[in-house]
Specification:
The protein has 315 residues and is α+β, with helices and mostly antiparallel strands. It is built from nine helices and eight strands. Strand 6 and strand 7 form a beta hairpin. It is globular, with a radius of gyration of 22 Å.
Length: 315
């Protein structure tokens, strides 16, 4: 940009600076007020929301990334996983792959406790929120997990009919302003004490608002999603490794030949679910298996995170 161009744009600078200050303030606070959360009572709650299309100037409907959230003897790891960015490696994932490859109940429990969790973020319009009526009609960011994302995918790409003679369902763009769908978000406590969203469902297609002016106001209220998948939002490999070791209370990376579990089994506390979206990511314990010297294949019913550990062990 040359000097004349800079001078021509100077009148818009204060707005950009205010926007940047707001973003930095939100990132630095304990609770980002741009995000909406479903209020619940003992694991039960409901609301009606509407997923929104691309934000002005962006081309993504959701930001997808992975995150590590677990507690060690010296605090919490609450960091985004670098593997969210193609080609990047993560010291926590590498340590987990060693644990998984060595086998044994204790190692596998630690790997599950420290696994990366899949996250999605979309813009939503809150249509009905009985617990907090002041949120209704407002645009927020909403973080959700694989279960809800699978429901979105099933509407956009309907699966083949399960039984012969059943009609193929028509695809529905749930993000569309005119022909999208309200989403009835329902959280219920299930066996084992963990809430589930499996009773949630989409309504029939409907227009989000009556006039073009109202729709445009909603669109102009949406938040950027690109920032959540920007490299700036992730620690470097070395920074995350240093934080990881500090939280575990180790001074150097444990040697795989000596058994990683001996260095960390006293450092990592039991898994604690610290937000509702994590409930659907918790892996239930599997039956015991005999540990073998060679790398073990992961059972077919294990989730993709365990497959990820196994892949790292083979590299």
């Amino acid at each position: 940009m040359d000097f004349k161009s800079m001078m021509a744009l100077r009148k818009n600078r204060i707005g950009k600076v205010q926007e940047q200050l707001e973003k930095e303030s939100n990132k630095g606070s304990f609770e980002d007020t741009r995000f909406w959360k479903l209020q619940h009572t003992e694991g039960n709650g409901s609301a009606i929301i509407r997923f929104l299309p691309e934000t002005n100037g962006e081309d993504i409907l959701w930001a997808k990334y992975y995150r590590h959230e677990f507690k060690g003897q010296n605090g919490w790891i609450m960091d985004n996983c670098p593997t969210s960015i193609t080609g990047q490696k993560c010291p926590i994932c590498e340590a987990n792959s060693i644990l998984w490859n060595e086998g044994g109940d204790e190692n596998e429990k630690l790997a599950r406790d420290r696994k990366r969790k899949l996250k999605y973020i979309s813009n939503i319009l809150v249509v009905k929120d009985a617990a907090n009526p002041e949120n209704e009609g407002k645009v927020f960011l909403y973080q959700y997990g694989k279960m809800i994302h699978d429901m979105i995918e099933a509407k956009i790409n309907p699966p083949e009919p399960e039984f012969k003679g059943e009609a193929q369902k028509e695809p529905v763009d749930v993000f569309d302003f005119l022909e999208g769908c309200n989403f009835r978000l329902r959280m219920k406590k299930k066996g084992g004490g963990y809430p589930t969203y499996e009773s949630s469902e989409f309504d029939s297609p409907s227009q989000i608002a009556e006039t073009d002016e109202e729709i445009e106001a909603i669109w102009n209220s949406q938040h950027s999603l690109n920032e959540f998948v920007s490299p700036d939002n992730f620690k470097s490999y070395d920074e995350l490794k240093e934080r990881f070791h500090k939280v575990l209370g180790v001074t150097q990376a444990p040697s795989p030949n000596k058994g990683v579990v001996e260095a960390v089994e006293e450092s990592v506390a039991s898994h604690q679910v610290n937000n509702q979206e994590d409930y659907e990511e918790v892996i239930k314990p599997k039956s015991k298996r005999v540990t073998k010297p060679a790398p073990k294949p992961i059972e077919e019913d294990a989730d993709d995170e365990m497959a990820f550990f196994n892949k790292l062990a083979e590299e």
